[in-house]
Design a protein that fits this description.
The protein is of the alpha+beta class and 324 residues long. It folds into 3 domains: 65 residues, Winged helix-like DNA-binding domain superfamily/Winged helix DNA-binding domain (Arc Repressor Mutant, subunit A, Orthogonal Bundle); 173 residues, Endonuclease Chain A (Endonuclease, Chain A), CATH 3.30.870.10; 64 residues, Orthogonal Bundle (Arc Repressor Mutant, subunit A), CATH 1.10.10. The strands form 2 sheets. The chain has an 8-stranded mixed beta sheet, sandwiched between helices. A two-stranded antiparallel sheet has the order 1-2. A hairpin with a 7-residue loop joins β1 and β2. α11 packs across α12. The chain starts with 8 loop residues before the first helix and ends with a helix. Pfam families: GerE. It comes from Kitasatospora cathayae. This is Helix-turn-helix transcriptional regulator. InterPro entries: Sig_transdc_resp-reg_C-effctor (IPR016032), TrmB-like (IPR051797), Tscrpt_reg_LuxR_C (IPR000792), WH-like_DNA-bd_sf (IPR036388).
Length: 324
């Protein structure tokens, strides 16, 4: 049972024996588990690192098992906090990689073509869509999608799907609150496409047949222009970037469950992390595709759950509880 949490089988056996036989000595635990006393001591050391055993108050020199509902919940909370930290680091790495790829591609003649203005970008997207043979991958950050942009994509996407082209689209978690984007996502799903969402996304990106890609010249403002990239090494790196983001995103239609130990959604956890690094509400909201009002509402809810009277106090309590 505990092996899934990283606890070895001998340590698991010792822990279960201590729960069933709380008064046993090391020698008795060894005999019961079929282990040597040295193996039991090693198991106790391991359990101590996982905080599943503590020093006994009644019997000095002995250890007592922590109740599973307490000890295992703490392990899960720590692992989930570590996962959230790794995901946040990955999101930062994605953004840096996108910018690096754009800069490198721009300075390599023959590997990239610079497109100026939205009309040029839209025209190139239409050509790429018509020429797609196997797959179109897209990352679309931002909390809102213009209805006219979504409608413009229906025809080309429907034609591509009818030809057997796979379409995978990544949207920001906050677009689930946008009725136009939600309706479009469900329409795309009904035609055989795939749509997922995540709190934090890489920069805007379109990859066609894993051989061509469009990336923004300026990740902070995609309307300044785009680079049409065809260098195999760069496109492969962008595909890896997409697949990493796709692997931790949630399919549209599925409900992203709150963390059972904290009650935080992934968006709330990421918001706490961003604000904890010193970002303003506005900047954190831009990263997550949230309005300032939505950021304020999330923080009010988090502060209420923590019983905090200020954001500073909320940050301290969240860290103490292992939420960050």
């Amino acid at each position: 049972m505990l092996e899934a949490l990283g606890v070895t089988a001998p340590a698991t056996a010792v822990y279960q024996a201590m729960l069933d036989r709380p008064g046993d000595s090391v020698e008795q635990l060894a005999a019961f588990c079929g282990l040597s006393p040295a193996q039991v001591h090693a198991g106790l050391d391991e359990l101590s690192r996982f905080m599943l055993v503590r020093a006994s108050s009644e019997c000095p020199g002995r250890m007592r098992a922590v109740a599973p509902e307490v000890g295992l919940a703490d392990i899960l909370a720590r692992q989930e906090a570590d996962l959230a930290a790794r995901q946040a680091q990955l999101a930062t790495s994605r953004a840096a990689l996108t910018r690096l790829v754009a800069e490198r591609a721009y300075h390599r003649a023959g590997d990239a073509e610079r497109l100026m203005g939205m009309d040029a970008i839209q025209s190139r997207l239409e050509l790429l869509g018509r020429g797609a043979v196997t797959e179109v991958l897209g990352v679309h950050p931002g909390s809102h999608r213009r209805p006219e942009d979504l409608e413009a994509g229906r025809g080309p996407n429907e034609a591509a799907l009818a030809r057997g082209v796979a379409i995978k689209s990544l949207y920001q978690e906050s677009t689930r609150n946008d009725p136009h984007a939600t309706n479009y996502a469900h329409w795309l799903l009904s035609r055989g496409g795939e749509v997922r969402t995540a709190p934090v996304l890489p920069q805007r990106l379109v990859i066609v047949d894993r051989s061509q890609a469009l990336v923004p010249v300026d990740p902070a403002d995609s309307r300044k222009g785009a680079l049409h990239v065809s260098a195999p090494g760069i496109v492969a790196a962008l595909v890896d970037l997409f697949e990493q983001a796709w692997s931790i995103a949630v399919p549209v239609g599925a409900v992203r469950a709150e963390d059972p130990t904290t009650g935080l959604s992934d968006t709330e956890r990421e918001l706490l992390r961003l604000l904890g690094t010193g970002l303003t509400d506005e900047t954190a909201g831009q990263r997550l595709g949230l309005s300032a009002r939505t950021v304020s509402r999330h923080m009010s809810s988090i502060m209420e759950r923590l019983g905090a009277s200020s954001r500073f106090e909320a940050g301290i309590k969240a860290a103490q509880k292992g939420w960050l």
